[in-house]
Amino acid sequence: MATSYNHRLIEGKWNEKWEKDPVNVDDGKKEKYYCLDMFPYPSGNGLHVGHWRGYVISDVWSRYKLMQGYYLIHPMGWDAFGLPAENYAIKHGIHPSISTAENVANIKKQINEISAIYDWDREVNTTDPNYYKWTQWIFVKMFEHGLAYEKEMPINWCPSCKTGLANEEVVDGKCERCHSEVTKKNLRQWMLKITAYADRLLADLDKLDWPEKVKKMQTDWIGKSYGAEVDFKVDGMDETITVYTTRPDTLYGATFMVLAPEHALASKLATDETKAAVEKYIYDASMKSNVDRMQDKEKTGVFTGSYAINPLNGAKTPIWLSDYVLADYGTGAIMCVPAHDDRDFAFAKKFDLPIIQVIAEDGKEIPDMQEAYTEAKGTMINSGEWNGRESAELKREAPEMIEKLGYGKKTVNYKLRDWVFSRQRYWGEPIPIIHCPDCGAVAVPEDQLPVLLPDVEKYEPTGTGESPLAAIDSWVNTTCPKCGKPAKRETNTMPQWAGSSWYFLRYVDSKNDKALVDKEKADKYLPVDMYIGGVEHAVLHLLYSRFYTKFLNDIGVVDFDEPFKKLFNQGMICGRDKDTGAATKMSKSLGNIVSPDDMVRDYGCDALRLYELFIGPPELDSIWDDRGIDGVYRFLARFYTMVMNNVEKNAPETDELIKLRHKLTHVITTRLESFSLNTVISGFMEYNNKFVELTKGAGVDHETLKTMVRLIAPFAPHVGEELWECLGGEGSVFASGWPTYDEDMISDNVITIPVQINGKTKATIDIVADEAKDAVLTKGKEALADKLEGLNVIKEIYVPGKIVNIVAK
RNA sequence: GCAGAUGUGGCGGAAUGGCAGACGCGCUAGAUUCAGGUUCUAGUGAGGUAACACUCGUGUGGGUUCAACUCCCAUCAUCUGCACCA
C-alpha cells in the first residue's frame, strides 16, 4: 500500500473501475435530480482551464446530489451547428461535417479528463439528423400554429461580402470579416413570433430561482411598458397619426410631434417648400445603419411643413421627422413633451421649439427650464381641466380617460421583437418548408423529416444573399406535398440557437425515433433542476429555451412551462497580460492560455478540480496563477498521508474527534449548500491541519476519517474513492450517503470570547456557554484590571457567547 | 447617460454588526539534504519596540452604534449589461 500520494496510479485505477461499474443507476425508486451544463460548441481550439470551471462546479453539485440518494441526470452533448463551425471549415478547407466530428472527438477526450460523472448514453449532437429531425419538427409545429411566418424586412447587409449578416456579426457598425460599413437591405426572412409569449416570458420569471441579474436582463429585454395610443388629426388633410406614449398625463405639454423617417406618412406630409429637404432626410436615414443611428448623440431632424391637432385642446403642433424615433416600436410616431422628456427637450432646444411645463414639482412654474423634469411627481399646470391634479395619479388614469373620450386607447408595448430565424448559411438545419406556386409555403410532412442537409462542394456564402443550398438544383426542386405540382425547397437554414433551445429535453430520451421525447420519460426526468453555465447567454439562449418550452408545453409535448428551475452563472477564469499583469480573457492571441491537459498530467485531475474551486468565489471572475495549484496539491498529498498514517494506527474514537467530525460536516454542508465552494476547500484545509496535528498524538479514528473522505469525495473523487477503499468502506464512496451532523454536537461548552475597552479588543477570556452575565462581566473586568485602572466605567456590555465590551473614560 | 457587480496585505482571497486578514500562494529564517528540489518547523498588514506596550489600517468623505469590511448618505475607480423603446 503506497503511503505517498501518486495521482497517476489512483486516478488511472478509479477511472477504469467507474467505467466498468457505474454508481449512478436508476433503480426506479430514487428521486431524480437533473443537473445540466450548457453544452459546448466543439471548437478546434480545445479547452483551457477556464472551461473546466463550470464543468467542475456542476460535477461537484451532481456528485453531492448522488450521495444524497438521487438518481442523476447529468448529460453532455454538442452544439455543433452554426457560424463558428462553418467559418472554421472555410478557414481550414475541411468540410464542416468532418471538422466537427474531429473537434467533437478531441473535446470529448478533454472533457473526460475532468472525470465528471456524465452519462454518455444520453449524448446528443445538434448536427445529427436523428436530432435535427426534431429541431425541424418543432419548426413545423410552430408553423402550423402560426408562430413561424415569412416577412420581408430590412436586415444588416455587407455590400463588400454581398451577404446578409446577423446582428452578432456587426461590430461597431462594421462587418466582422471585411470591416466595411454595414448597410440595410430588404430580405425575405422567416420569423418566429416570440412576442406572442412576451407576457408569459415576463411573468414567469417570478417563479425561477435564477440570479437577479439575469432576470433583470430578460425583463429589460422584454421591455413591457404601459401607456396609451393617442390619435392626432393632421391639419388640412384627411389623415390621422397615432402616437404611443407612456405619459398621457403630459398631453397638454405636447408642443410638436416627431415621426420616424420610415413612417408611412413621412413624405406625404411634406409641402412644396419642404419636399426636397424631407426626401433627402428620409433617404439619408435609410442609408444609415442602426448602429450609426444609435451612436449619433446630436439630434437631427426636418420639419415636414404639416401640423397635427392635439385632440385635448385643439392646439396645432408642427410635425417633424427625426431618426431618434424608431419605426418598429410603438406606432413609429411620438408626441413630444419637451418639458418632461430629455430627448424631446434636446430636440426642442436644437430646433427652437416651444416648451410648455405641465407638471410642477412645488406647484410653481420654472421660468427658464434648463433640463426636462421627467418624474411623474407634482401637480398639473397649464393643463385645462387637469390643473391641480396629482401627476402620478393622472398618469395611471389618463389612458382610460383618453379611451373614454374617444381620442385613442389604452395600450401595452414591448421592446421584444419577433425572432429573425433564417440564415443564408450552409451549416445549419434546413428550414423544412416547400414553396409551391399555388399553395404557397407548405410544411414538409412529418414522415418526410428530417430534411437532410445536402452535401455541397462549396459551402461558403454565395454572395447573392441566398444560402449555398440554393445552388443545388436537384435538391431545391421538388414537388408540393399538398398538390404534387413542381415546387422549390426553402434554402435558408436555422440559426445556431435552434438546436440549443430544446436539447435539454432530448437528453432524457436521446435515441427515440418516434417522438421528440417520450411523455413518460419527460414526466419522470424533467425539467432541469440546476443549470450551470456562463452569463453570456443571459438573454439569447435562455430566453429562446424558455420560449420553446412554453410552446412545447402548449402543444402537450411536456407538462411544465419553464425549462430550468435554478440557474448558476460561474465567473470567468482570466489569464494575466504578460506585460501589464492585468486580468484578461484567456486567448490564443495573447498567449496566456493554460492547458488543463498539462495540469492533469502534472498535478492530477483531483488537484485541478480543487484549484478550480479554491481560486475564488465561483460566481466571480478569477485570475489563474500557475503556482496556486501547488497549494491544493500539497493539501491533497498531506491529506492522503494523514489518512494512510491513521489507517495503520487505528486510533480509538474520542469525544473530541466525534465533535470535530460533526463540526466539519456542518461547515462543509452549509458552505456547499450556499455555493461557497472556495471556502469549502479552505475548510477542508483547515480541518486537515487539525487532524495532522492530532495524528502526532493518539491519532484519528476510522469513523472520523471516513466522514472526511465522504465529504471530500464530490470534490476530489479519485482520492475519496481510494481512501474509502483503504478505510474498508463498503462499495463506492458515492453510494455511502452524505454525512449528517447533530446540531448539539457543533457547539462548544467552553468558548473563548474577546474582551474590549471602548470597542477595542484588549484580552480574551474563557467562559462556559451559558455562564451568567454578571459572572462573565466580572471575569472580563478582572482580565482588564490593570488597563481599567484610573478609568471610569460608564457601561458594561455582554452579548451572550460573543463579546464583552467595557465603555470607560 | 441608466442599471448592476466589484474595491480588504506583495498576490488569490476569508469574516450571521462582535478578536480584520481564515485558508492558500509568495517571501524570510531554521531542520533534513553533498547540493538543488521535495518535506518539516517557526515567522510574515504598516509604523513602533531589545521584546512587550502602543498607534494606524478594509477605495474616499461623512453618519448611525458600546462596537462598522459589514448598516445609512455622498463620492471616486474598475468591470459587465442596456443604450434615443417615447
Question: What this model shows, in words?
Answer:
The protein has 809 residues and is of the alpha+beta class. The protein is globular and about 105 Å long. The protein is 35% helix and 19% strand. Strands 10, 11, 12, 13, 14, 15 and 18 form a seven-stranded mixed beta sheet that branches. The model has no long low-confidence stretch (mean pLDDT 90). It binds one RNA strand of 86 nucleotides through helix 7, strand 11, strand 15, helix 10 and strand 28.
Can you tag this structure with a few keywords?
809 residues; alpha+beta; seven-stranded mixed beta sheet; 35% helix; RNA-binding
Overall average pLDDT:
90
Number of strands: 32
Percent of residues in helices: 25-40%
Shape category: globular
**Cα separation of the termini:** 66 Å
* Beta-strand share of residues: 15-25%
Largest sheet: 7 strands, mixed
Tell me the structural class.
Answer: alpha+beta
Rg, Cα atoms, Å = 34 Å
Poorly predicted spans: none
- Count the helices. How many? 25
